[in-house]
Amino acid sequence: MKAAVIVFPGSNCDRDLAVAFRAAGFDVDMVWHKDTELPQGVDVVGVPGGFSFGDYLRCGAIAARSPIVAALKAHVEAGGYGIGICNGFQVLLETGLLPGALMRNAGLKFICKPVELSVETTASDFTSGYSAGQTVTYPVAHHDGNYVATPEVVAALEAEDRVAFRYCEDLNGSVGRIAGILSENRRVLGLMPHPERAADPALGTADGAALFAALAKAGVAA
Ligand SMILES: NC(=O)CC[C@H](N)C(=O)O
């Protein structure tokens, strides 16, 4: 399996994401946001966390207009995998590849700590390595993690089993305590907590490693 990690000015989890992909067996290429093409044969595109363009305008809004985004959209529209973590989730929402928006945390504070999440569905190639309802611990580090969407969108996400992760306790005001969602074809995952920062026991929790391992396995089986 081959992964590409997009790097924006202000990305700060790009290398963490590359390390997590590599540990799961992926070949990884780093791709500068001004590039217009993804490397040949990429299976999954990772949109990393950070503070792209200093979080000006809205988090992810400027990055979503970067030249590489057309290639990202084409990859996803052709059925390719994508994962957006934290700022990467914000970018995916701003591109329209996932529905909804992320607003300022309800408490108006930056939140940086490990949090407990429940795995809401195992019916995706990101979450198939967990058991349904399993509690995992990933860190969060964000000020704009308050997920909002229209009631119709939230109802569709729930009805279609597209809520991938939920905060076990209200963290930031997100509707339905939603922490991560899947695209309609279940091949794009956006989430605020950081599995790549929880992918090695040396980091305090290795709960995130199963996500990358499941994705690698799905590719091998395909
Ligand atoms: N760790 C991150 O990716 C930060 C995300 C975003 N810039 C925020 O603070 O909301």
TrEMBL record:
Gene name of the encoded protein: purQ
SUPFAM superfamilies, sorted: Class I glutamine amidotransferase-like (SSF52317)
Protein's UniProt name: Phosphoribosylformylglycinamidine synthase subunit PurQ
Gene Ontology molecular function, alphabetical: ATP binding; glutaminase activity; phosphoribosylformylglycinamidine synthase activity
Reactions this protein catalyses: N(2)-formyl-N(1)-(5-phospho-beta-D-ribosyl)glycinamide + L-glutamine + ATP + H2O = 2-formamido-N(1)-(5-O-phospho-beta-D-ribosyl)acetamidine + L-glutamate + ADP + phosphate + H(+); L-glutamine + H2O = L-glutamate + NH4(+)
Compartments, as annotated in UniProt: Cytoplasm
UniProt xrefs under InterPro entries: Class_I_gatase-like, PRibForGlyAmidine_synth_PurQ
SMART domains referenced in this protein's UniProt entry, alphabetically: GATase_5
Pathway where this protein functions: Purine metabolism; IMP biosynthesis via de novo pathway; 5-amino-1-(5-phospho-D-ribosyl)imidazole from N(2)-formyl-N(1)-(5-phospho-D-ribosyl)glycinamide: step 1/2
A GO cellular component entry from the record: cytoplasm
GO-annotated biological processes: 'de novo' IMP biosynthetic process
Function: Part of the phosphoribosylformylglycinamidine synthase complex involved in the purines biosynthetic pathway. Catalyzes the ATP-dependent conversion of formylglycinamide ribonucleotide (FGAR) and glutamine to yield formylglycinamidine ribonucleotide (FGAM) and glutamate. The FGAM synthase complex is composed of three subunits. PurQ produces an ammonia molecule by converting glutamine to glutamate. PurL transfers the ammonia molecule to FGAR to form FGAM in an ATP-dependent manner.
Record text on subunit structure and interactions: Part of the FGAM synthase complex composed of 1 PurL, 1 PurQ and 2 PurS subunits.
The UniProt record lists the keyword Kinase: no
Domain of life: Bacteria
Residues at the active site: 86, 194, 196
Record EC number: 6.3.5.3, 3.5.1.2
